[in-house]
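Because showing beats explaining, we let one protein speak, sequence and backbone structure tokens together, and leave readers to judge.
___
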Amino acid sequence: MGMYVLPLNAYLKSFDSSAVLVASTSSPLQIYGGDTFTVSGPPPIRPVPGTRSGLAASDSLTTGNTAYWVFGGSAAGQPGAKYTYSEDSQGMHIGVQSAVDGQWAGYYAVNGNTPAYLFHARLTLPYSTIPGQSFNTGLYVQTGGPEINYVTCAAQTSSSGYYWAVVLATGNATYATSYKNLWFQWMNNQPLTRDCTIVTNGANMLKVYLDGQVVYSNSTMKLGYAYPFQVFIEVQSSYSGQMLFGVYNNYYATTNEKVTVTNAPAGGSVQIVDSTNKILASSPVASNGTATMLVGMYALPLNAYVKVYDPSNTLVASTASQIAIWGGDVYTVS
């Protein structure tokens, strides 16, 4: 430096062994002999801990422990009707057999006190056809009041074939009196096992996912459901020739379908990313530092990272590893 007339007005730049620029002063500065400068590393990645879980209830329905559920149904009160339930590694099996062809008999598992607005189960209809009459299986979300008012994601089979449907029913304290198909699809190579997710506030909003696709969505309904809701998995049959079963697994309920991240850099973004770096959900960060992402279309939990980026798309915060992510979860950038 002594050969120069000091100070030098210049940049300081640092390169790695591959001649790639890794650090630089942001502008020219005055440099004297004897000056010492330190290359600063990038700021540490901040943690993103969970501050509230959205999980309200979960049951794989494969453990053999059915204590979460109460069992019942019209079949129990019909002379000659048969019913049963059990669990194994495939799921909960609920079976019913009508006493007389043409007379409906049902049997169900119900939980009537779950503080949640999203409900999911994987349903299997084991039969593409049956010899006669009809049989159905479904996930039901019903008002917590005495009326038989509910929405169901269900499959039904008969001698003609099968279909999947979303049905809204209203009734009195004894039985449903009217039914409205909100969505319907006849066979069309549909699978016999499907993930059903019902999201509702019991008032004006109802959304139903089938295998991750929205098949019905409405925010102007007049449901009038008392909260907390009753949740049923149920089979019904009008066929007396044999016991018919529905199979259920991966039941869960969450407070909603949103994942919220707070204290993030305004103008940045938040992503939920899996182990292959696939982005499962993302959201811009609002001026209040909050980002909200929908995950209701997935079978939960997601095993993924939560990553937070600043407005220049630089990673500034992340979970240290993959975590189980549920709808309703809240995370905060520390």
In short: The mean pLDDT is 94.
